[in-house]
Specification:
A six-stranded parallel beta sheet has the order 3-2-1-4-5-6, with helices on both faces. Strand 1, helix 1 and strand 2 form a beta-alpha-beta unit. The protein is an alpha/beta fold. It starts with a strand and ends in a 13-residue tail after the last helix. The protein contains eight helices and six strands, in the order E-H-E-H-E-H-E-H-E-H-E-H-H-H.
Length: 210
Amino acid sequence: MKRVKIGLIGCGRISEAVHVPALLEMNKYARITAIYDLKEKASKDLKKKYSLDCRICKSPEELLDSDVDGVIISTPNHTHCQLTLQALKAGKNVLVEKPMAINLKDADKMIASAKRKSLYLQVNQSLRFSPPYVKIKKMIETGDIGKPLHIRCMRASSSSPDKGWSPGAKWFTQKSAGGGIVMDIAVHMADMLGWYFGKARSIYAITSAK
Protein backbone atom coordinates (compact mmCIF):
# COMPACT_ATOMS: atom_id res chain seq x y z
CA MET A 1 0.00 0.00 0.00
CA LYS A 2 1.31 3.44 -0.94
CA ARG A 3 1.77 5.62 2.12
CA VAL A 4 0.26 9.11 2.09
CA LYS A 5 2.86 11.86 2.27
CA ILE A 6 2.05 14.53 4.84
CA GLY A 7 3.46 18.02 5.30
CA LEU A 8 3.21 19.94 8.57
CA ILE A 9 2.77 23.70 8.48
CA GLY A 10 3.34 24.78 12.05
CA CYS A 11 5.59 22.82 14.40
CA GLY A 12 4.34 24.10 17.73
CA ARG A 13 2.67 22.43 20.67
CA ILE A 14 -0.29 20.79 18.89
CA SER A 15 1.98 19.22 16.28
CA GLU A 16 4.43 18.05 18.93
CA ALA A 17 1.81 16.64 21.31
CA VAL A 18 -0.85 15.36 18.93
CA HIS A 19 -0.26 15.33 15.19
CA VAL A 20 3.23 13.87 15.01
CA PRO A 21 2.60 11.07 17.56
CA ALA A 22 -0.65 10.18 15.77
CA LEU A 23 1.03 10.06 12.37
CA LEU A 24 3.85 7.91 13.72
CA GLU A 25 1.23 5.48 15.03
CA MET A 26 -0.18 5.40 11.48
CA ASN A 27 3.23 4.78 9.95
CA LYS A 28 1.87 1.95 7.83
CA TYR A 29 -0.45 4.35 6.04
CA ALA A 30 1.15 7.80 6.24
CA ARG A 31 4.51 9.45 6.74
CA ILE A 32 5.72 12.97 7.38
CA THR A 33 7.93 14.10 4.51
CA ALA A 34 8.13 17.88 4.96
CA ILE A 35 7.73 20.36 7.80
CA TYR A 36 7.75 24.14 8.12
CA ASP A 37 7.53 26.66 10.92
CA LEU A 38 8.07 30.40 10.94
CA LYS A 39 10.63 29.71 13.65
CA GLU A 40 13.12 27.32 12.08
CA LYS A 41 14.25 26.18 15.52
CA ALA A 42 10.77 24.75 16.14
CA SER A 43 11.09 22.66 12.97
CA LYS A 44 14.54 21.43 13.93
CA ASP A 45 13.48 20.61 17.48
CA LEU A 46 10.44 18.66 16.27
CA LYS A 47 12.49 16.70 13.74
CA LYS A 48 15.11 15.86 16.35
CA LYS A 49 12.64 14.89 19.09
CA TYR A 50 10.87 12.33 16.91
CA SER A 51 13.81 11.40 14.65
CA LEU A 52 11.73 12.34 11.62
CA ASP A 53 13.00 11.48 8.16
CA CYS A 54 11.68 14.65 6.58
CA ARG A 55 12.68 17.83 4.84
CA ILE A 56 12.74 21.13 6.74
CA CYS A 57 11.32 23.78 4.45
CA LYS A 58 12.13 27.48 4.46
CA SER A 59 8.61 28.60 3.52
CA PRO A 60 5.06 27.31 3.07
CA GLU A 61 5.58 27.64 -0.66
CA GLU A 62 8.58 25.31 -0.59
CA LEU A 63 6.59 22.73 1.34
CA LEU A 64 3.61 22.99 -1.02
CA ASP A 65 5.91 22.61 -4.03
CA SER A 66 7.06 19.24 -2.68
CA ASP A 67 5.28 15.96 -3.39
CA VAL A 68 3.14 15.91 -0.23
CA ASP A 69 -0.39 14.60 -0.70
CA GLY A 70 -1.84 16.60 2.14
CA VAL A 71 -0.95 19.17 4.78
CA ILE A 72 -1.83 19.74 8.41
CA ILE A 73 -2.08 23.43 9.24
CA SER A 74 -1.34 24.14 12.90
CA THR A 75 -0.65 27.85 12.99
CA PRO A 76 -2.27 30.86 14.72
CA ASN A 77 -5.93 31.13 13.82
CA HIS A 78 -5.74 34.28 11.71
CA THR A 79 -3.43 32.48 9.24
CA HIS A 80 -5.69 29.46 8.67
CA CYS A 81 -7.61 30.89 5.71
CA GLN A 82 -4.61 32.12 3.71
CA LEU A 83 -2.57 28.95 4.23
CA THR A 84 -5.53 26.69 3.47
CA LEU A 85 -6.26 28.53 0.24
CA GLN A 86 -2.58 28.28 -0.74
CA ALA A 87 -2.55 24.55 -0.04
CA LEU A 88 -5.74 23.89 -1.97
CA LYS A 89 -4.50 25.96 -4.90
CA ALA A 90 -1.38 23.75 -4.90
CA GLY A 91 -3.61 20.66 -5.12
CA LYS A 92 -3.08 19.46 -1.53
CA ASN A 93 -5.72 18.03 0.79
CA VAL A 94 -5.96 19.92 4.08
CA LEU A 95 -6.53 19.24 7.76
CA VAL A 96 -6.69 22.62 9.47
CA GLU A 97 -6.74 23.21 13.19
CA LYS A 98 -9.80 24.67 14.85
CA PRO A 99 -11.21 27.24 14.67
CA MET A 100 -11.42 26.91 10.91
CA ALA A 101 -11.17 30.69 10.45
CA ILE A 102 -11.78 33.83 12.47
CA ASN A 103 -14.85 34.87 10.49
CA LEU A 104 -17.56 33.28 8.38
CA LYS A 105 -16.43 34.96 5.14
CA ASP A 106 -13.04 33.27 5.31
CA ALA A 107 -14.56 29.90 6.20
CA ASP A 108 -16.85 30.12 3.17
CA LYS A 109 -13.86 30.90 0.92
CA MET A 110 -12.06 27.81 2.19
CA ILE A 111 -15.05 25.54 1.61
CA ALA A 112 -15.69 26.94 -1.87
CA SER A 113 -12.05 26.45 -2.86
CA ALA A 114 -12.00 22.83 -1.68
CA LYS A 115 -15.18 22.11 -3.64
CA ARG A 116 -13.79 23.70 -6.81
CA LYS A 117 -10.61 21.65 -6.52
CA SER A 118 -12.44 18.44 -5.44
CA LEU A 119 -10.04 18.17 -2.50
CA TYR A 120 -10.54 17.17 1.13
CA LEU A 121 -10.79 19.96 3.69
CA GLN A 122 -11.30 18.89 7.30
CA VAL A 123 -11.30 20.94 10.48
CA ASN A 124 -9.72 19.29 13.50
CA GLN A 125 -12.73 19.39 15.83
CA SER A 126 -11.14 16.71 17.96
CA LEU A 127 -14.02 16.15 20.39
CA ARG A 128 -15.89 14.39 17.59
CA PHE A 129 -13.33 11.58 17.87
CA SER A 130 -13.08 11.51 21.67
CA PRO A 131 -14.78 8.34 23.04
CA PRO A 132 -16.90 10.02 25.76
CA TYR A 133 -18.36 12.54 23.32
CA VAL A 134 -18.89 9.89 20.63
CA LYS A 135 -20.77 7.81 23.21
CA ILE A 136 -23.08 10.72 24.02
CA LYS A 137 -23.79 11.20 20.31
CA LYS A 138 -24.69 7.53 19.91
CA MET A 139 -26.97 7.65 22.96
CA ILE A 140 -28.80 10.62 21.48
CA GLU A 141 -29.18 8.92 18.10
CA THR A 142 -30.48 5.66 19.57
CA GLY A 143 -32.86 7.43 21.96
CA ASP A 144 -31.26 5.83 25.01
CA ILE A 145 -31.54 9.10 26.94
CA GLY A 146 -34.81 10.25 25.37
CA LYS A 147 -35.13 13.52 23.50
CA PRO A 148 -32.53 16.03 24.75
CA LEU A 149 -34.05 19.41 25.52
CA HIS A 150 -31.20 21.23 27.23
CA ILE A 151 -27.44 21.02 27.42
CA ARG A 152 -24.92 22.99 29.47
CA CYS A 153 -21.25 23.21 28.56
CA MET A 154 -18.40 24.25 30.80
CA ARG A 155 -14.71 24.49 30.01
CA ALA A 156 -12.50 24.90 33.05
CA SER A 157 -8.75 25.25 33.38
CA SER A 158 -6.23 26.47 35.91
CA SER A 159 -4.58 28.74 33.35
CA SER A 160 -4.99 30.24 29.89
CA PRO A 161 -3.55 28.35 26.85
CA ASP A 162 -0.58 30.69 26.55
CA LYS A 163 0.51 29.67 30.06
CA GLY A 164 -0.58 26.07 30.57
CA TRP A 165 -0.81 24.48 27.12
CA SER A 166 1.85 26.34 25.17
CA PRO A 167 3.84 28.72 27.39
CA GLY A 168 4.68 31.96 25.63
CA ALA A 169 2.19 31.57 22.76
CA LYS A 170 0.54 34.92 23.39
CA TRP A 171 -1.53 34.83 20.19
CA PHE A 172 -4.04 32.58 21.97
CA THR A 173 -5.39 35.54 23.91
CA GLN A 174 -5.06 38.21 21.21
CA LYS A 175 -8.26 38.92 19.32
CA SER A 176 -6.33 40.07 16.23
CA ALA A 177 -4.34 36.82 15.97
CA GLY A 178 -6.60 34.10 17.31
CA GLY A 179 -10.00 35.65 17.70
CA GLY A 180 -9.59 35.60 21.47
CA ILE A 181 -9.87 32.78 23.95
CA VAL A 182 -13.62 32.40 23.45
CA MET A 183 -13.15 31.92 19.71
CA ASP A 184 -10.27 29.49 20.19
CA ILE A 185 -11.57 27.35 23.05
CA ALA A 186 -15.36 27.73 23.02
CA VAL A 187 -15.42 26.58 19.39
CA HIS A 188 -15.12 23.04 20.79
CA MET A 189 -18.37 23.51 22.71
CA ALA A 190 -20.12 25.27 19.83
CA ASP A 191 -19.28 22.45 17.43
CA MET A 192 -20.38 19.84 19.94
CA LEU A 193 -23.75 21.56 20.41
CA GLY A 194 -24.36 21.56 16.67
CA TRP A 195 -23.28 17.94 16.41
CA TYR A 196 -25.69 16.86 19.12
CA PHE A 197 -28.68 19.09 18.39
CA GLY A 198 -28.40 19.98 14.70
CA LYS A 199 -28.24 23.38 13.02
CA ALA A 200 -29.21 26.31 15.23
CA ARG A 201 -32.34 28.24 14.25
CA SER A 202 -31.60 31.24 16.46
CA ILE A 203 -28.95 32.38 18.90
CA TYR A 204 -28.55 34.96 21.65
CA ALA A 205 -26.06 35.69 24.39
CA ILE A 206 -26.00 37.21 27.85
CA THR A 207 -22.60 38.54 28.84
CA SER A 208 -20.99 40.58 31.58
CA ALA A 209 -17.56 42.03 32.17
CA LYS A 210 -15.77 43.36 35.22
